[in-house]
Amino acid sequence: MVNDMVNDKKRTYCVIGAGTAGLCAARHALQAGGEVTVFEMASQLGGTWVFNEQVDKNEYGIDVHSSMYKGLKTNLPKEIMGYPDFPIPEQESSYIPAEDMLRFFKYFSDFFGITECIKFSHYVIRVKPTKDEKQWEVIVRDCPNDEFKTYYFDYVLVCNGHYHTPKLPNYPGLGVYKGKQMHSHDYRCNDPFVGETVLVIGAGPSGMDLAYEISKKAERVTLSHHLKDKPKTVFPDNVTLKNDVARLTETGVVFTDGTSQDFSVICYSTGYKYTFPFLSCDCGIIVEDNYVQKLYKHCINIRYPTMAFIGLPYYVCAAQMMDLQARFCIKFFSGEKQLPSQEEMEKDTNTEMEERWSRGMKKRQAHMMGPQEDRYYDDLARTAGVDPIKPVIKKLHKLCAFRFSEDLVNFRKDNFRIIDDETYVKVN
């Protein structure tokens, strides 16, 4: 899709989602002189930081996106959870409640004039290229008025997050087990677990957190994981750690070590799928086992380079990376910098992915950064000629990324202060 707009015409941007990614994408599009419309399916901004008692469907029959639960605090310090030039306001604690994160995003949105661009309770139904391939046709449901409206945009920024569609393992015996099965997406508080025997599957930040929270009410909790080294954290006495599940039985599970145990509840904390149900099949995007392709630098749609995805990479410093991705994309979309040819973008992408596969990474890890995150950030900044992420942010993220697995009960008591672009100190 080649956009040959005349210079005096304002570029129009569709931003899908008003969470962490959508807000910074809208901000940079606005600051580049664009005309921005943000479609947000919820009645307020904040994305995953909005607490919603509802599970399954909302009042309009649409899947509830939020995975937020009562009492949730950040699992990274606020010093690295703001945007590069717009940090979270100073306060005593580094690990802050979800309500404070939401307050920050509302302040950010108002400060940059984004809020007035957001159409709340508007659900994107379909995005497809127009026949001349010069614009995007976007069909949206205005939920409160139950009306369908069609819009046209020069650019689309997909910012719908990836903590909304649960990914469930396909264990033998799934249909045999007679207890309750749930995904962490539907966890809201620990009250329903009084007296229950609970298996939590998955030892990422959510699984660890849920095992600990549920243990306060449950009779006993088992945390199943496939980590090479088991978490070092000390859990309460009623929590035990086990290896992977081999299969489910009527009353519980058999683990890969051959032992078995009974449970009244199984809670899957097994991650989420990347899904874009609103993209028509002719958008040039396919998703295979969580590998979204083909994208230039994990964000720009190579087939139609007037569409971008903000926030796909994981094991990253999320808000900082999303802001960098947004600046990267807008640098090209605004016309300030010229994108490489489609062939050059494909070659660059193929080279990177071959390097990933050579390191033994699977398709489902196509957007995983972790140890590669610094290289990715620097590549984005260098390619677009934008400011890189500050060294102090990278350093602090590396220190804190896996603190939850070392000391789940106490790690949120750590407090940090950033001194300058290179230096932070730990203060308690």
UniProtKB/TrEMBL annotation:
Q: Where is the signal peptide?
A: none
Superkingdom of origin: Eukaryota
Output the Pfam families linked to this UniProt entry: FMO-like
Keywords, in A-Z order: FAD, Flavoprotein, Monooxygenase, NADP, Oxidoreductase
Q: What class of enzyme is it?
A: oxidoreductase
Q: Which EC number(s) does UniProt give?
A: 1.-.-.-
Q: List, separated by semicolons, the cofactors it needs.
A: FAD
Keyword Transmembrane attached = no
| KW Signal (keyword) present | no
The similarity comment for this entry is: Belongs to the FMO family.
Report what the protein is called: Flavin-containing monooxygenase
Q: Which organism is it from?
A: Aedes albopictus
